[in-house]
Amino acid sequence: MQELLASSENGKRILHIGNCDKFIPPFIEFVSSHFNFEEHDFFLTSGMADSKIKKSEKVTLLKQRTLKGVRNVLSVLFKIHKADKVILHGLFDINLVILLCCIPWQFKKCYWVIWGGDLYSHSYDKRTIKWRLKEFFRKIAIRNFGHLVTYIHGDLELARSWYNAKGQQHECLMYSSNLYKEYAVPKSDNSFINIQIGNSADPSNNHIEVLERLLPFKDENINIYLPLSYGSTEYAQRVITKGKLMFGEKFKPITDFMEFNEYLSFLGTIDVAIFNHKRQQAMGNTITLLGLGKTVYLRDSTAQWQFFKEKGIKVKNINELNALDKYISTENIKVIKDYFSEKNYLMQLRNLFS
Predict the structure, then answer these.
(1) What are the φ/ψ torsions at residue 113 (nearest 5 degrees)?
(2) Closest CA to 225 of 213, 238, 239
């Protein structure tokens, strides 16, 4: 700990800008516990985890979800110019993107932490006039950012291909949700197979397509769980209606938000997880399940499929969902435990902050 604190005490001023999503409060706590917190300044717009933020002179939390208002714009402009590094936690706020385009001399010290949705909007959002206008500014910014932060090489390749991104790559797990979780998996009822589909009520999970693929197993001893506690309420209801019609009591939607430890216990009961996203998504869930030795199905066209294969982590192809295998992969547990360790995470953050 002392070594990390000492290595960080070099007078740098690091500004973090982002939305107060669920990953941010634990990240702030981690930085506060392991680094010189005086070097870090957080400027956040309102998000789903506002109530989790602890009051601090180092944290500014706006009441709105996007950067707007003369006072707020001037404040973040001052902070950007004063900072040695500007770490952008996701790139979802077009107002922030436009602001950065107005001060292009600051691009070189910007570190874009690629979340996934902020990258894949290039291909998956509707091609409206509004989208084209946003992409005009995003292309200017992303092409000129000095640094790109991701541990998934496939996402980096897409950023370079789609936006001609020139920034230096920094490999970093970035958030504690991606770390290996030590958890004693309870003995399960061997007569049932518990299946998880997706991680949220976002249409990108493509739940109904998976439910249709599972129809051949309808008469087997299965339970189908769908975490639907956040995302689109309307979409969640459509999935619930369809799922109950197809599988009856074997279909078990989860609509109440779970605290972390409760959700980890839930993941420990899962035997097979199916993530039918067409892009990089749900990495925290996927890493945790693989770290528990569970069977995970992904699309073989996604960046995370490529990443896991490169690391020697065994995942299954959704297109080859012909049987429901139930086993514990000790090989996956070992690889996940080594790469997604707190030790590796600390080293990566130290390199990022130094």
Answers:
(1) -85, 110
(2) 239
For the CA atoms of 300, 305, 308, 310, the dihedral, rounded to the nearest 10 degrees, stands at 80
Q: How far apart are CA 144 and CA 60, in angstroms?
A: 27
The long-range contacts involving 167-171, CB below 8 angstroms and separated by at least 24 positions, are: 167/112, 170/111, 170/348, 170/351, 170/352, 171/348
Query: Pseudo-torsion of CA 123, 352, 74, 121, nearest 10°?
Result: 10
Looking at the predicted structure, is the pLDDT value of residue 187 above 80? no
Q: Render the burial of 294-307: b for 16+ CB within 10 Å, e for the rest.
A: bbbbbbeebbbbbb
Return the minimum-mean-pLDDT range out of 189-193, 227-231, 345-349, 350-354: 189-193
The count of other CB atoms within 10 Å of the CB of residue 17 is 26
Task: Tell me the average pLDDT of the chain.
Answer: 93
pLDDT of residue 188: 63
Q: How far is CA 293 from CA 80, 273, 296, 327, 331, in A?
A: 43, 11, 9, 8, 8
What tens digit of pLDDT does each residue of 55-100 get?
999 999 999 999 999 999 999 999 999 999 999 999 999 999 999 9
Whole-angstrom distance, CA of residue 50 vs CA of residue 307: 32
Helices (H) and strands (E) in the chain, counts: 14, 13
Strand partners, 168: 147
